[in-house]
């Protein structure tokens, strides 16, 4: 009887774990689909060095690259020569690592070389050990009247 009860309990625990994983998988799929479908904001997933790992429709619209053209490249490709000379992309990654987030406004470069004034937020992503494992980067186009110097 004890063996049957143990088997039954083990089976039920297994069913709960599978059910919970399935629910989590559905939530992850829904969340990823939601992020991918956002068109008003460029949302990127970066690795620890700032290399692009994921790219949504808003990023494609705002920056002009197809995902296949940009994934694997460093996000610094969007910065002006002046910002690169001042090492701004690396400094933003350092700031996000140290403080959890970094904000910036300025001219950014599209694939076709045109510039747009954008506001960016880079947020550190941590693992369970509180180590930075990557970043999210959200860019939004600012209208000329919203540009702050």
The CATH fourth-level homologous superfamily of the largest domain: PAS domain
Radius of gyration: 21 Å
Major beta sheet, strand line-up: 2-1-5-4-3
Element-level helix/strand string: HEEHHHHEEE
Into how many domains do the coordinates divide? 2
How many individual helices?
5
State the shape. Answer: elongated
What fraction of residues sit in β-strands? 25-35%
Alpha-carbon distance between the termini? 76 Å
**Main beta-sheet annotation:** 5 strands, antiparallel
Name of the level-1 CATH class of the largest domain: Alpha Beta
Low-confidence stretches: none
Instruction: Please name the CATH topology of the largest domain.
Output: Beta-Lactamase
Q: For the residues shown, what is the average pLDDT?
A: 85
- Helix/sheet category: alpha+beta
Short structural description:
This protein has five helices and five strands. The protein is of the alpha+beta class and 149 residues long. The protein has a five-stranded antiparallel sheet with strand order 2-1-5-4-3.
Characterise the protein shown here:
With 149 residues, the chain is of the alpha+beta class. Helices cover 43% and strands 27% of the residues. It contains 5 helices and 5 strands; from the N terminus they run H-E-E-H-H-H-H-E-E-E. It has helices spanning 2-37, 57-63, 67-70, 81-85, 88-99; strands spanning 42-46, 52-55, 101-109, 115-126, 132-141. The termini are far apart. The mean pLDDT is 85.
């Amino acid at each position: 009887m004890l063996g049957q009860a143990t088997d039954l309990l083990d089976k039920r625990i297994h069913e709960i774990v599978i059910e919970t994983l399935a629910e989590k998988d559905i939530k992850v799929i829904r969340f990823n689909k939601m992020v991918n479908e956002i068109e008003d904001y460029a949302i990127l997933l970066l690795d620890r060095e700032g290399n692009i790992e994921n790219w949504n429709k808003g990023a494609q619209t705002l920056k002009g690259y197809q995902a296949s053209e940009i994934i694997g490249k460093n996000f610094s490709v969007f910065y002006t020569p002046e910002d690169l000379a001042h090492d701004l992309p690396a400094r933003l990654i350092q700031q996000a690592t140290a403080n959890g987030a970094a904000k910036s406004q300025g001219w950014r470069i599209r694939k076709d070389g045109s510039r747009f004034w954008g506001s960016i937020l880079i947020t550190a992503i941590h693992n369970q050990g509180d180590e930075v494992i990557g970043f999210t980067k959200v860019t939004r186009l600012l209208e000329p009247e919203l540009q702050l110097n």
